[in-house]
Amino acid sequence: MNTHQRRPLVVLSHRVHPQVITLLSQRCEVIPNQHEDSLPAAELQRRAANADALMVFMPDRIDADFLDACPRLRVIAGALKGDDNIDLEACTSRGIWMTRVEDLLTDPTAELAVGLLIGLARNVAPGDRRVRAGFPGWRPVLYGQSLIGATIGIIGAGAVGRAVARLLRGFDARLRYSDPAPVPAAVADFLGLEQVTLTELLTSSDAVIVCAPLGPDTMHLLDRAALASMRAGALLVNVGRGSVVCEDVVAELLRLGHLGGYAADVFEFEDYSRPERPGHPHPGLIGQPEKTLFTPHLGSAVDAARLAIEQRAATSILQALAGDVPEGAANSVHQGSAIMPLPRE
């Protein structure tokens, strides 16, 4: 091996655990970003111009123009589950691997979804504010809803939707789901899941949990007609993607009293695949604290899970640079195209 040959350059777009930098640094040159804020798009482009590998996160938007400015790229490792913010076709046509981490986010996201539903149904946030404002003792206020025996609809019955159903089984709830791909019969029976149309799910559920990814078929899936069809006073929780729900309509229906409450860990302004996305959380939602419950994308914010996700993404980078098929590959490209394949350990 030519000892003077350049080591592969890896750019990290966001802060990662130190162990991940150490792992990559053993075999690559690493340009990290250990600040809390995202890099501006132009700065990420500048850093990645001569990179062989890039680790990206949800706030990053990778399109064909970005890739054309980074001619050495051989792998983009997403420390994320979805890839709607990355042009997969453009990666494939340029011989760039794109990887993602699908299975490590499922349980933390499902856990938060159930937590948000309980918090919304039982007025946890308003109750907390009431106590902090000078609690006079018990009064007959803040009566909420119980999940015991409720009808709960799940939109999107992939890994997260099924994990949510598994956690809700203990509530003796009637669980219904809507998804173009049916859940295998044995799994549905085990989870107590009944498949129904989206219309039936919305009109019959006391609470609806959105677990669907964002794509052409799910963009504003819950539009005005769909949201207006929900049972009066029903609760809506979104842990899928912000733009699956039309936030304008949700804000209006909350104000009119048709929706009983809205909780979300995801927001339209976060969907970087949408050039026309809003620039901030919807003010009509933020302005209704008594009817909403929000978390800042905490679905995957479990320290051990985040470390595992980053390590998986880093491993996929090393595999691709070594000329192997990387773990979690979302596409297929010609192998052996790396500028300098890493030696196998």
Automatic annotation (TrEMBL):
<dbReference type="InterPro" id="IPR006140">
    <property type="entry name" value="D-isomer_DH_NAD-bd"/>
</dbReference>
<dbReference type="Pfam" id="PF00389">
    <property type="entry name" value="2-Hacid_dh"/>
</dbReference>
<dbReference type="InterPro" id="IPR036291">
    <property type="entry name" value="NAD(P)-bd_dom_sf"/>
</dbReference>
<protein>
    <submittedName>
        <fullName>Hydroxyacid dehydrogenase</fullName>
    </submittedName>
</protein>
<dbReference type="GO" id="GO:0008465">
    <property type="term" value="F:hydroxypyruvate reductase (NADH) activity"/>
</dbReference>
<dbReference type="Pfam" id="PF02826">
    <property type="entry name" value="2-Hacid_dh_C"/>
</dbReference>
<dbReference type="InterPro" id="IPR050223">
    <property type="entry name" value="D-isomer_2-hydroxyacid_DH"/>
</dbReference>
<keyword id="KW-0560">Oxidoreductase</keyword>
<dbReference type="GO" id="GO:0030267">
    <property type="term" value="F:glyoxylate reductase (NADPH) activity"/>
</dbReference>
<comment type="similarity">
    <text>Belongs to the D-isomer specific 2-hydroxyacid dehydrogenase family.</text>
</comment>
<dbReference type="GO" id="GO:0005829">
    <property type="term" value="C:cytosol"/>
</dbReference>
<dbReference type="GO" id="GO:0051287">
    <property type="term" value="F:NAD binding"/>
</dbReference>
<feature type="domain" description="D-isomer specific 2-hydroxyacid dehydrogenase catalytic">
    <location>
        <begin position="10"/>
        <end position="331"/>
    </location>
</feature>
<feature type="domain" description="D-isomer specific 2-hydroxyacid dehydrogenase NAD-binding">
    <location>
        <begin position="114"/>
        <end position="299"/>
    </location>
</feature>
<dbReference type="InterPro" id="IPR006139">
    <property type="entry name" value="D-isomer_2_OHA_DH_cat_dom"/>
</dbReference>
